[in-house]
C-alpha cells in the first residue's frame, strides 16, 4: 500500500547556515528561487501525499506562515517550541498525527531532482512491510552535491543495509524514507536520533535501501548555495 502521509523534519537550528539562519529558518532558505521546504513538499505533492506533518522549533512562526499558503499536501504542524526533540523524538511526538500505517519521512534541508520515475514512487513500489521496518532512499557520492562526510550504508544484493563506516563503495542516506510506526512502540518521548532505529532495524535484518536516480543536493553553509543552484540548473537541463 502506497503511503498517503509524510513527516517533514523541519525543526533544526541550521547553525552552519549562519548568518542567513540568524533571521530565517533553514527550511526557508531559497535555492533556485524555491525554499528547501517547498522542494520537499513539491516532491510529496507529486507523489500524491494527502497530509504532511511538519515539525517546527526554531523561528516557527515563519514556517507556519509559509506553509499556510499550500493547498497540497494538507499541512499539519507539530509544535516543538518547548524543546528540540531531534529526528526520532520529533516523529514520536507526531505519531498521533501520523496514524498507524507506514509513512514517508523527509528532511526539510535536503532535496533532489529526479531522473525518470520519481524516487518517492519507486520507494513506494519497493516497500515491503513483511520484510522491512524502514526503507531508505540512497544515493552515491557522484550523484550528490554539497555532501562531504563520506558514505553511510553498504547494500546487500537483496537491498538489506549495514553501516558502511565510510567505505567509499557505500551509499549516502538521501534524506527520505518509508518507515513503519511499529518501530516506535515503547519509544522514549525525549530528544533522540533516528540512528537508534536504523541500528535496531539493521540488527533485526529489517533496514533496506533503494538507490534514487537523479541529483541529490544538500546545502550545509551559505557558500554552498551557488553550487546547489548550479546543480539544479544542470539537473533540470538534463531532464528537458
Overall description:
One of its GO terms (molecular function) is nucleotidyltransferase activity. Strands 5-4-1-6-12-8-13 form a 7-stranded mixed beta sheet, with helices on both faces. Strands 7-14-9 form a 3-stranded mixed beta sheet. A two-stranded antiparallel sheet has the order 2-3. The model has no long low-confidence stretch (mean pLDDT 93). The chain has helices at residues 36-46, 60-67, 86-98, 119-126, 195-203, 225-239; strands spanning 5-9, 30-31, 34-35, 51-56, 74-79, 103-107, 110-114, 134-139, 144-145, 153-155, 161-163, 172-179, 207-211, 214-218. It has one domain (5-238): Spore Coat Polysaccharide Biosynthesis Protein SpsA, Chain A, CATH 3.90.550.10. It has 240 residues and is α/β, with parallel strands linked by helices.
- The oligomerization state is single chain
How many domain regions?
Answer: 1
Number of strands: 14
Q: Helical element count?
A: 6
Overall pLDDT, averaged?
Answer: 93
CATH fold-type name: Spore Coat Polysaccharide Biosynthesis Protein SpsA, Chain A
Give the distance, in angstroms, between the N- and C-terminal Cα atoms.
31 Å
Sheet with most strands: 7 strands, mixed
CATH superfamily: Spore Coat Polysaccharide Biosynthesis Protein SpsA, Chain A
CATH class: Alpha Beta
Approximately how much helix is present in the residues?
25-40%
Structural class: alpha/beta
Order of H and E elements: EEEHEHEHEEHEEEEEHEEH
GO molecular function, one term: nucleotidyltransferase activity
Keywords: Magnesium, Nucleotidyltransferase, Transferase
InterPro entries: GlmU-like, MobA-like_NTP_Trfase, Nucleotide-diphossugar_trans
Organism: Mesorhizobium atlanticum
Amino acid at each position: 500500500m502506497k503511503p498517503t502521509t509524510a513527516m517533514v523534519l523541519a525543526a533544526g537550528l541550521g547553525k552552519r547556515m549562519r548568518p542567513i539562519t540568524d533571521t530565517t529558518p533553514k527550511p526557508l532558505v531559497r535555492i533556485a528561487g524555491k525554499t528547501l521546504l517547498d522542494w520537499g513538499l513539491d516532491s510529496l505533492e507529486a507523489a500524491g501525499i494527502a497530509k504532511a506533518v511538519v515539525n517546527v522549533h526554531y523561528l516557527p512562526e515563519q514556517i507556519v506562515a509559509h506553509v499556510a499558503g499550500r493547498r497540497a499536501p494538507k499541512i499539519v504542524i507539530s509544535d516543538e517550541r518547548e524543546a528540540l526533540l531531534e529526528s526520532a523524538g520529533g516523529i514520536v511526538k507526531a505519531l498521533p498525527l501520523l496514524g498507524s500505517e507506514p509513512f514517508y519521512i523527509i528532511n526539510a534541508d535536503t532535496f533532489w531532482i529526479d531522473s525518470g520515475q520519481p524516487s518517492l514512487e519507486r520507494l513506494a513500489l519497493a516497500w515491503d512491510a513483511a520484510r522491512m521496518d524502514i526503507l531508505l532512499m540512497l544515493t552515491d557520492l557522484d550523484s550528490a552535491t554539497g555532501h562531504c562526510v563520506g558514505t553511510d550504508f553498504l547494500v546487500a544484493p537483496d537491498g538489506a543495509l549495514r553501516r558502511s563506516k565510510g567505505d567509499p563503495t557505500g551509499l549516502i542516506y538521501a534524506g527520505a524514507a518509508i518507515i513503519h510506526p511499529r518501530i516506535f512502540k515503547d519509544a522514549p518521548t525525549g530528544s533522540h536520533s533516528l540512528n537508534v532505529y536504523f541500528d535496531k532495524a539493521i540488527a533485526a535484518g529489517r533496514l533496506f535501501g533503494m538507490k534514487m536516480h537523479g541529483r541529490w543536493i544538500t546545502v550545509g553553509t551559505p557558500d554552498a548555495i551557488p553550487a546547489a543552484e548550479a546543480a539544479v540548473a544542470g539537473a533540470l537541463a538534463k531532464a528537458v
